[in-house]
Amino acid sequence: MPSTTTYAPSARTTPTRLRERVSYDRDAVHAALDEAVLCHVAFVVDGAPVVLPQLHARVGETLYLHGSTGARAMRQAQTDGIDVCVTVTHLDGLVLARSAFHHSANYRCVVVHGRAHLVTDPAEKDEALRHLVDAVVPGRSDHVRGPSRRELAATAVLRLDLVDVSYKHREGPPGDDEDDLGSPWWAGVLPLRTVTGEPVPAPDLVPGVEVPEHVRGWARG
Amino acid sequence: MPSTTTYAPSARTTPTRLRERVSYDRDAVHAALDEAVLCHVAFVVDGAPVVLPQLHARVGETLYLHGSTGARAMRQAQTDGIDVCVTVTHLDGLVLARSAFHHSANYRCVVVHGRAHLVTDPAEKDEALRHLVDAVVPGRSDHVRGPSRRELAATAVLRLDLVDVSYKHREGPPGDDEDDLGSPWWAGVLPLRTVTGEPVPAPDLVPGVEVPEHVRGWARG
């Protein structure tokens, strides 16, 4: 019986090196997917790899991908789906070691392999698009005009089940060699994070509409 | 004769939609590649796509990719190279429209297609690794212990020529439909950017070593 707290490792998600950095923890995977605004989706066109950024939303163990940036992929998916690899990466810090060799990054990375299918059921598509808006800005879907029938038809959504999934991360200080510890070079971590600037209202905004709390309070990580 | 200021469009880099967002401007491509700490590299394994984050450095019209996270790719590359797609994405802001449909993101994205080759020449590899360290933290390579012969042998570097390259970006306010402009919803852009936290010295740092200027002054974008 599959574990409820971890994904089952597969040939594809079993690391060939740095095994200590890999896990299959569902909570860690969910948190990293949910925190990310965008993912990178790879697929194969005429035998060659292509990777593009896309917006995504996780709903339980399903990942929805928005169709706007991957028209080629959406057309390929129309018959019996398309094999994809979806990767989300959070760069948490630069790891500066005494040696060039041990320079690294602190990061959290989720990799999902599988066959993605076009969402054709209108109710599921409508719901998925709502989740896609809320994944970018939580609560936003209650403060917009919902999609018209024409807009729904112009939008493609892919669904991908979270089955073949791995989580890789590094944290903490540099891992310098013993011999380098006495050297005079500064070593440590430079933390990185994403922050928001002041919201920029649309120039044609109806006068008097204030920045709402779901925008003002947006934060990640 | 090829233009000196733009890349030549190819079948792969000619958009099927949203043509106004695509260009081939070398300066824009170089700036976006140089600003990014990491890229996403896609390749094909047993017919299926794989995409992983990696560190990169641009030197003129060459992109160097560090081997630490893509051991499978490095093995594939050993004979006559490996077809890759390298994508760098900067998420500059969330574009919040009055309609769900016109929600978008402001971004800059470079996509490079081509065959990457292992760097085998020791001098080029040594130089490429120096560039890889400096691409993450400019000036850093003068403040570290350089790689030993053993470390050089344990590191793989791929080189990819910048030939089949496109640049896609979106900026500015939401593009709502005329009919939605009078609606009461707030619309605008929430800018995003990456910032550094306070540098965290390694716990085993030699006492008295101060945070150097190349770390203190690190900034992107």
Secondary structure elements and their pairing?
The structure is a homodimer of 221-residue chains.
Chain A lengths: L21 E2 L2 H10 L2 E8 L2 E12 L2 E5 L4 H7 L4 E15 L7 E15 L3 H15 L12 H6 L2 E5 L2 E7 L17 E9 L3 E2 L11 H4 L5
Antiparallel strand pairs in A: 1-8, 2-3, 2-5, 3-4, 4-7, 5-6, 5-9, 6-7, 6-8
Task: Give me a quick take on this structure.
Chains A, B: InterPro entries: Pyridox_Oxase-rel, Split_barrel_FMN-bd. Chain A has 221 residues and is of the alpha+beta class.
Descriptive report:
The structure is a homodimer of 221-residue chains. Chain A has a single domain (19-174, 185-216), classed as Electron Transport, Fmn-binding Protein, Chain A (Pnp Oxidase, Chain A, Roll). The two termini of chain A are 33 Å apart. A six-stranded antiparallel β-barrel of chain A has the order 2-3-4-7-6-5. Chain A has 221 residues and is of the alpha+beta class. The mean pLDDT of chain A is 92. The first copy, chain A, contains five helices and ten strands; from the N terminus they run E-H-E-E-E-H-E-E-H-H-E-E-E-E-H. At the A-B interface, strand 2, strand 3, strand 5, strand 6 and helix 3 of A face strand 2, strand 3, strand 5, strand 6 and helix 3 of B.
Overall body shape of chain A:
globular
Q: For the record, what CATH class of chain A applies?
A: Mainly Beta
What is the count of distinct domains of chain A?
A: 1
Q: Give me the CATH fold name of chain A.
A: Pnp Oxidase, Chain A
Low-confidence stretches of chain A: none
Query: What portion of residues of chain A is helical?
Result: 10-25%
